[in-house]
Amino acid sequence: MKQNIIKTRLLNNQPVLGIISNSTDPTVAELCGFSGLDFYMIDGEHSAVTTAQVQDIVRACEVSGITPLARVRSNDPKLISQFLDAGVMGLMMPGIKTADDTDALVQAVMYPPMGSRSLGPVRSADYLQGTMSQSEYVQFANEQLLVLPQIEDKEAVENLDEILVVAGIDGFVISPRDLAMSMGYYDGPGHDEVKKTIGSVVEKIKKAGLIVGTTAATGDQAKVLVERGVLFCLNSFAGLLKSAAGDFMKGRS
After folding, report:
1. Average pLDDT of 64-74?
2. pTM above 0.90?
3. What number of other Cβ atoms are within 10 A of residue 113's Cβ?
4. What's 225's domain CATH number?
């Protein structure tokens, strides 16, 4: 397993910016890497990507120097293992609502003694043919993997104090749109109550000494978030392309 560059940056209080993409094409990941983005998150929830395709996308990330992450569709240990075995270096997990959910995620991601992930002669471990011994690899992998549950439901907000103390979590990614819908605001997160809730969640996560992440549609939005202490900012591939296309098409007017 390689060093997780973005986890090192985050632990040094440095921001990272990247995208989440539902594309199954490795070329998209490769282009994002050569464009200078910090991370490429494979969307395994809202896409048709298969675990067989994940491995090729991860290879494309490695070629272009971008850190491969993934959002896995469910807190299923076997599914999580397939993504990680392919070389994904961190997970963002949707649907987390309780401390038990959070602990189950840690157990699935981490090798013993931190978790219960099984070890096989897989790609992430250099097929157990690398320079590390098995014990060295297990320890290194546990240190390098980035674990980011999503806060996207009002139940998670209600249980946040218990969730924050679960060992093995690096931080949380707040999902404004889904959180707003769970609070009864179906037209988006622009309501004062939603903004207040998100602000409170951000402060609690920061106070716990953990990483805060959320979405940013533009560089200016990301800059404001970073100034507030949000170090993990992600846009969507479709959103980034639409924004760039809009800027480009101004030349026609």
Report:
1. 97
2. yes
3. 9
4. 3.20.20.60
